[in-house]
């Protein structure tokens, strides 16, 4: 029912936009620089060759390495330590209004001539929150009791997640504002798609690598099983 309802909402709103929204012809450039798929890709490669674009792509491809493990693994580790999945899912509910309000607030600071200032100011705080998430995972078994986890533990988790959302959206809105600012209006779609794709890739590949490295980098102790290091999943199972 939930999926059906929102599917219907998407269909209705998209149809209304298609029917009622009119383009402002005065703002449309008289001459488009691309006429087809071949021209678009040729233009795309010429953009990528620009030294400034190459440097920027390198920046956003590597800028999220520092918090990839905290973002990708924290929730899984909390579940591993006994925090119920349904409780973690419920903790995401208070984040929804925050996620709606944050872009509106942050956009005031990214609308100026240097939107990336917000990006690099938020980065050290997001890195520190990675340590906070590690502390939450370490703390979980310490406060766990027969009835589950105390309310104050969940309160700290919610507060940590809220602070994390602030830093996350500060960086996200800043990078989107910068991409929009530097994109040539004549080829805005091609330019912004390239930068946004690289930005998304810069967030996805470190998380994938972090998840892949969890098992090799996790140290386990075997109790009552001699000559087993628990280094592999098979050994840990034994």
UniProtKB/TrEMBL annotation:
<keyword id="KW-1133">Transmembrane helix</keyword>
<dbReference type="InterPro" id="IPR036259">
    <property type="entry name" value="MFS_trans_sf"/>
</dbReference>
<keyword id="KW-0812">Transmembrane</keyword>
<feature type="transmembrane region" description="Helical">
    <location>
        <begin position="151"/>
        <end position="175"/>
    </location>
</feature>
<feature type="transmembrane region" description="Helical">
    <location>
        <begin position="87"/>
        <end position="106"/>
    </location>
</feature>
<dbReference type="Pfam" id="PF13000">
    <property type="entry name" value="Acatn"/>
</dbReference>
<dbReference type="InterPro" id="IPR024371">
    <property type="entry name" value="AcetylCoA_trans_1-like"/>
</dbReference>
<feature type="transmembrane region" description="Helical">
    <location>
        <begin position="118"/>
        <end position="139"/>
    </location>
</feature>
<dbReference type="InterPro" id="IPR004752">
    <property type="entry name" value="AmpG_permease/AT-1"/>
</dbReference>
<feature type="transmembrane region" description="Helical">
    <location>
        <begin position="43"/>
        <end position="67"/>
    </location>
</feature>
<dbReference type="GO" id="GO:0035348">
    <property type="term" value="P:acetyl-CoA transmembrane transport"/>
</dbReference>
<dbReference type="GO" id="GO:0008521">
    <property type="term" value="F:acetyl-CoA transmembrane transporter activity"/>
</dbReference>
<protein>
    <submittedName>
        <fullName>ACATN protein</fullName>
    </submittedName>
</protein>
<keyword id="KW-0472">Membrane</keyword>
<feature type="transmembrane region" description="Helical">
    <location>
        <begin position="6"/>
        <end position="22"/>
    </location>
</feature>
<dbReference type="GO" id="GO:0016020">
    <property type="term" value="C:membrane"/>
</dbReference>
């Amino acid at each position: 029912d939930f999926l059906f309802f929102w599917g219907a909402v998407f269909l209705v709103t998209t149809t209304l936009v298609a029917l009622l929204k009119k383009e402002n012809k005065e703002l449309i450039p008289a001459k488009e620089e691309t006429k087809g798929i071949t021209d678009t890709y040729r233009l795309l490669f010429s953009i990528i060759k620009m030294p400034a674009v190459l440097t920027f792509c390198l920046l956003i491809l590597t800028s999220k390495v520092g918090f990839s493990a905290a973002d990708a693994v924290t929730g899984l580790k909390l579940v591993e330590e006994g925090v119920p999945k349904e409780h973690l899912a419920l903790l995401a509910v208070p984040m929804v209004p925050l996620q709606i309000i944050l872009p509106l607030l942050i956009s005031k600071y990214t609308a100026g001539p240097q939107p990336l200032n917000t990006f690099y100011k938020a980065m050290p705080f997001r890195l520190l929150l990675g340590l906070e998430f590690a502390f939450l995972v370490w703390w979980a078994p310490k406060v766990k009791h027969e009835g589950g986890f105390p309310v104050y533990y969940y309160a700290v988790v919610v507060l940590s997640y809220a602070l994390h959302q602030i830093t996350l959206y500060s960086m996200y809105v800043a990078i989107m504002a910068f991409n929009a600012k530097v994109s040539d209006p004549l080829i805005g779609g091609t330019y912004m798609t390239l930068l946004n794709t690289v930005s998304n890739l810069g967030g996805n590949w470190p998380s994938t690598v972090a998840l892949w490295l969890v098992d090799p980098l996790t140290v386990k102790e075997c109790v009552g099983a001699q000559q087993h290091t628990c280094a592999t999943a098979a050994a840990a199972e034994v």
